[in-house]
Amino acid sequence: MMVEEEEELKPCGGIDIAEENETKRRRCCDGPSPIQWFRMLCRELHWSFVLGVVVVYGISQGFGGAMNRVGTEYYMKDVQKVQPSQAQFYQGITSIPWLVKPLWGLLTDVLPLFGYRRRPYFILAGSIGVIAMLVLSFHEKLHIAFAILALTVGSAGVAVADVTIDACVAQNSINHHSLAADMQSLCALSSSIGALFGFSVSGIFVHLIGPKGVYGLLAIPSGLVFLLGTLLKEPHSPNFAYTQVNQKFIDAGKSMWTTLKCPDVWRPCLYMYLSLALSLNILDGMFYWYTDSKGGPSFSQENVGFIFSIGSVGSILGAVLYQYVLKDHPFRDLLFWTQLVYGLSGMLDLMLVLRLNLRFGMPDYFFVVIDESVSQMTGRLKWMPLLVLSSKLCPPGIEGTFFALLMSIDNVGLLSATWGGGFLLHVLRVTRTQFDNLWLAILIRNVLRLTPLCLLFLVPGVDPNSSILPTEILSTKEDIELDTPEAENIELVSLVSRVDGK
């Protein structure tokens, strides 16, 4: 997964070495070739870390997440036959494993299994994911309660795998300040490219084998996560003192609470939650309208998949735009413009539902493609600086756990937006066949998207290359460091021996 190559610079001449290394990294990063940028990341962060990001973010979350989204939309609409407000409520339930990411982070940080810290958790994540998807695929008439349970278990598998990679990203962001934005760009590009391929084929597979058949295919990404765990090369520590686990949990909890009480930390955390919670999610209402044969444009399953896939191109463009143009801008300035554009872009949904596009001679399919692309691009541009900001708030020693805590705060915000959007659809009586008030739901959502602009004073005005945490928190690394530093020197076993034998 990752090899931690951490060298202590000597006081004499150490600054010159650090500046020289940073200059080299900047030259590689600013180069026009994406291949050079990718090679630079492999060299500076180790190829196994890059590979781990591609597997988890690109295949499991990107490709698998895209297939799961389209498959679940049709599964709820055509198989379980639930209302859009109910579908959003169930969607919130399946996201609960993401709300307890600090628990997974603590387990992977302080509780090794069978002498290993990482491998068992990858294997566990892959195993439960495979079982959950196969149950959904092969059971003929699964009750809605058991279906939600299976979807929640599958979501837990993805969340556990995600925590391990998040820990690596957060730790590398502390050790390589100048590459924090580059790492988030790698994660975003992997996820977006994987989603592009996933959405491209999702509608076709739903049409050919149905949503339950799609769940069967989703066992493959989970199987790759399982394989990732078996290939992981990690020092074996059979003499781990399990009696100290309780104290480690207590120490990690105290360190997290101390960090969270710092105004430089809780203020941006509050902004991240509110900016996400106020952006109400009404996607299920829009999906039901997309596929309705009377009130909506009645898109086919293939068209829905292609629309989402083209939208993923917008997400990729957003990640590329952030990497090459926006990544060095101060957080507050960048979040102002991205939030503003994100709020205004929602007006395209309003034009579509009111059928204004037809008055201008623009077909539904063409307009929806533009709408989805702009929405994905602005959403990615809004999300990227929040991720970089989160990685900058992690104290040394418990990077994985604290980053998981920050992501849980974000996920609580997303859950609030999902349930809030479902409640709004229910109040406005948007059902499987009635969409008279859908335009009002979109208008309310768009207005709420602009309200976080009044909360930007909570965000630090520094640039992404600066340190945000106070010195007293950064200096506590020795107090909370793991007992076995070599446990962090983790890499994937190469399937092909290297020529140089290193």
Provide keyphrases for this structure.
502 residues, mainly alpha, two-stranded antiparallel ribbon, 21 helices, globular, disordered N terminus, disordered C terminus
Q: How is the topology of this model organized?
A:
Blueprint: H1 14-29, H2 34-45, H3 47-79, H4 84-94, H5 96-99, H6 101-110, H7 119-138, H8 144-175, H9 180-217, H10 219-231, E1 232-233, H11 245-260, H12 263-277, H13 283-290, H14 301-326, H15 331-345, H16 347-353, H17 356-359, H18 364-392, H19 399-427, H20 438-450, H21 471-474, E2 491-492
Antiparallel strand pairs: 1-2
Helix pairs in contact: 2-3, 3-8, 3-9, 3-10, 4-13, 4-19, 6-8, 6-19, 7-8, 7-9, 7-10, 8-9, 8-19, 9-14, 9-18, 12-19, 14-18, 15-18, 15-20, 16-20
Quick summary of this structure?
By secondary structure, the protein is mainly alpha-helical. The protein contains 21 helices and 2 strands.
